[in-house]
Fold this protein.
Amino acid sequence: MSPRKPDRRTIQRHRFAAAVLVLSVAVHAAPNVQEFDTGKDNQLGLTFTPNGLTAFWVAWNGQWGNGEAGPRRIYRSQLRSGEWTPPTPMVFSGSYSDNGPFVSPDGQWLYFVSDRPTGTDDNLRDTNIWRYSLTEENRLELISINSDATEFSPVIVASGALYFASDRAGGSGQGDLYRAEPDGDGFAALHALGPALNTPTGEWNLWVSADEGEMIFEASSRPTNVSTPGDLYYSWNTPAGWTPAIPVEPLNSRNSDLMVRMHPNGETLYYTSAEIGGHAQMKAVGWPKMRKKLRYGFAPTLLVANRSSHEVTFVDLSQGKVTARTATGEGPHLLSNVDENRVLATGYGVFPRPHVQPVSDRPPFVTATNSRATLINSIDQTVLMETVLENCIRPHASWILGHKGFVTCQDEQQVRIIDLRNGQSTGHFDTLQGGSHVLSFEPKSRTLASSNTGSGSITLINIDSGSTEIVELAAGSEGALAVDGQIWVANAIDGSVSSVDPNDKAEVGRIDEVCQFPISISPGTQNLIWVACFASAELVAIDVNSYQIQRRLKLDQQPLNLLTHPTRNLAYVSYPRQNAVGEIDLESGLELRRIEVGIEPDGLRWAT
């Protein structure tokens, strides 16, 4: 059979990529933003031609956020004889507000948005995407994928695809991110980027690398925002799609942070920080180290509570090995949340008989008198505080909120309150239920939830008022997880999973026959939660919106605890009989590696 002739679009993409490769060979050093001072109140969106010799950006007078500010105008400066020329406005810019400039990777076009009319009958004054030719004088074009709504920050990538943001109808929220395929000299096949990036709040100005490997965008009103108007978020592309976006914590401030652009050298990131009622100023930061921190800084180290070696081990996932061990009280089952680099481990005092080698059968359990709580620095592994909890025979789970620690006292049917500054007990909440076991905190309602294995229920505690409410569930209520205002509970003996509304103080849904002995829960991507099932040795994904089981992954060992990676589609499961933790690819279901940790591992947390 003769080879297939490539179509026009394939040829166009190959030419586009070749042009990008040629133009990106010689790139000049990244300049300081001070080189581009126009004397205007606000400056934003510094972008460069691929060789780094020409810069474009936006400047205007007036207060940030004030609709009466002057029109935004695009300026240009060129590097000549080692110096940048004085800023000059682009010939097409000035009569209308132009914003979000971006030079295509082939250096042929300057893309931007403008509120200029698209025709004689256009009275909307919304912003649309335009492009200006950098090789043909006075060639200005309107892009075909515009809508009657507002478009933001066009970005062209090496494939010829167009990324942009829009508040057009049919999106997930106030504004969403989109990608349009190249089609001849225009664009087609428009689609939203999906729930890993788009949310019911707002996604706006974005930058995408030429190879479509990573992006940074502005998001407003997210619960994780430092500033409600706009924080920066980062995501990267994987075979499974874009990762859930994470905050760019080093850059986000009380100002509105937005409009990221990258210098062609790939090492300097430019962005704008704008004070509401003040002014917008461009800033520059190094990118490679920040990228590494974003990708791995959220979870550089896995913390593991080992029941039968009475310790917390610190696992460096980049090396796949334990790098430190910190002794605790006897039989630590779970770890608290990590708060300000502090994690609390409580000695439950009941643990399987130690076995140095992996075993296949359940070892006999040992009972010791122990009520020790150990507060550990999750970064440097030092013990910050140790205390013995009087009249708390079986402390099982814990949670940290500021200087307070909360610990379940299983036999006493209590949640004990500890002052983490001195280890003193300062009070307690009565759960009034047998086997108070696992804690989770739902921040919106200020509810601390204690699952109660002995009575098949959950006790909801308002930590401000101290009021408690018992919600009956099903037999063996154990694992608990707060997600998006709801509390999910694994009913181990019943084999079901319940959803509890802390405001209504009621069970609002239940998924029956999930698996045999569901024991722990961890959040997943795309509205999923993952459940570890001990007896049936599997992981089960549940859609939190539809209450439907989406996937089942069979394991070759029984998992006791489960922790999903915060930015990658991976899960870590503790295999107690194997003295190991398994790393599971949640897309393929394959176990990627097994890491020896300690004897009878149980609770898992991230160090940061």
